Each structure stands twice: as C-alpha cells, then as structure tokens.
Amino acid sequence: MSANKQQVPKVNMDKGNIEILIVDDEPCICSALDRILSIEGYRVRTALDGETALKLCREKSPDVLLLDLMMPGMDGREVCQRVRESGTATRIIYFTAKADNTDPPGLKQLRNEVDALITKPCSVKTLLSRLQNVLEGTQQINKAVNVNPGVAAGKL
What we know:
Layout: E1 19-23, H1 27-39, E2 43-47, H2 50-59, E3 64-67, H3 76-85, E4 91-96, H4 104-113, E5 116-119, H5 124-145
Parallel strand pairs: 1-2, 1-3, 3-4, 4-5
C-alpha cells in the first residue's frame, strides 16, 4: 500500500469498541480526558509524550488519536506525521492551545493535517461533539467504500 493511501478504518459506532489514545504532556489533562471519555463508554489509553504514543500505536493502533500539539521532545506534528506514514487508519484530532485566530494560514495548515482540531480550553460538549463528528465521518467512509465492492482499480 502506498504511503499516500490509508486503509479505510473499520469503526463500529458502539463506543465500547472504540479506542482513543490521549497524548498530552500535562498529566492533569490526560487524567481529565481519560475520565470524561471513559464515562462516555470509550476505551482509553494515555501517553505523556510522543515517543510513548508511537510505541502504543505500534502495539495496537487506536481508532482515534487525541493529540496535543505542543509537547517537549517529539511534538504532536511529528507524532501525526509518523502515524500517517505508518499507513494506519487512525483518525487524528489535534487538541491544542496553539491554534488561536492570530495566524489563520497556520491554522488552516493544522486543520489540513488532521481529521479535526479542538482548541483548549473547550467544553466537554464541544469535545464529545467533535469526536462524534470524526467517528460519523469514518462510518460514512465505510458505507461509501462498501457500496460497490466489485469495483477494482487498475488499467482501463
């Protein structure tokens, strides 16, 4: 499979089947997000740095990666790039304080790198809504791909 093509994710909308990896260098943020998403019924793992996040992704690719952008060492953009290069179907959401409105071109570039971008601080309702939108988009992709499974790519 080429590096530009990603596998279509197989996400069952049953929250108990959806695994989210939270990556943030602030333990209190990881803990709070873990509690919120666990209460909602998602399976959650956490990492406090980019290296640990990549290790966990190699062990088992999460359905969604909730990723802080500004971390010491390996930052969120590098983690995102490496996960994308691996060809996994992981959906990535940047969860960051960096994306303010003072740099619209930079904000647009950040949005193009991932499936969604959430700025800190945000309400629980906003977090859950954006997560649901990403998951519903994944479900729509699955439906579209399965419409005509007899179609194959190749020379015409």
